[in-house]
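Structure ticket #2291
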Amino acid sequence: METNETCDTSESKGINEFNSDESTPTPPKSRTSHDNATKVQIPPTSDTPDARPSADPSEVDAKPIVWPSGSSPSDPISVPTGKDNKCYALEGTKKVVIFNQKVFAPRLKLNPRKGTEIDVKSIQNTFKSLDWDIDLYNDCTVAQIREVILKQIQLSEENFAALAIFILSHGEDNGTIFASDYPFRVDHDILFQLAADKSPNLAGKPKLVFVQACQGQETDAGSNVTERDRRRRHTSQDSTSTYKIPNYADF
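Resolution: structure written out below.
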C-alpha cells in the first residue's frame, strides 16, 4: 500500500507561523486534515520574522507520550522477538516513511533538488516488491515532520513489524537536515524519538533510517587500502593493488 501526502506550504513553499504582539491581527490559518499529514496554508506577509514563539502545539519540541490506560513507562514492554532469537520475528506491518524535500523557502537560498523523484520511485519499487507499506510526504515543514513522527509512529495503534525512514533533502554538518522552512537534527527529531522509551510500540523491532543529503562543504579524504590475500602469506615483494575508499564507507 502506498500513501502520498503533500506538505506544501506558502511563502513560496516556506512556512512562518507566529504570534504577533503588534496590533495587526494574526493572519488566518486553514488546515486540511489528511490520513497521514496536515496541510498548512499561510497567507504570505511582507514582513515575517524568521523566529517567533508559536501557540501551535505542533511547533513545540517536546511532546508528551500518552501511555495506554493502565500502563506506565516503568512497565515491561512486550516484544515479539526473544533475546536469544537469531532473527527478528516480523509480526505486523512493515512500514516505510519517506520525507522527500524538493523545494525550500526562498530565504534559505537552497536550490530545488531536481531529480529527487527518481530516488523516491526507486525506494517505492524496492520496498513494494518486499511487501512493505509506503507513506510518502513531500516538502514538509519541521513541524509537520515532527507531527508525522508523533502521530503516525509514536502514538500509532498500528502493530509495526519494522520501520524504515528515508530523508531526502539538503544538509549541513553535525547531522543538520533541511525541511522546507527550517533545519532540523536527525538525532534529536528522528533517532531519539524512535527509542524504546519514546516509542514503546517499536521496542525490539528493526528500525532503519536512510539519509540522502550533503553534510556541509568538507570532503572525505578517504583512506588507501589493499586487498588481503588469505591464501598465502603476504611478503614485501608481493605486488598488490592499492585503492582508496571513503572513511565512512562501511557504516
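Closing remark: The two ends are 30 Å apart (CA to CA).
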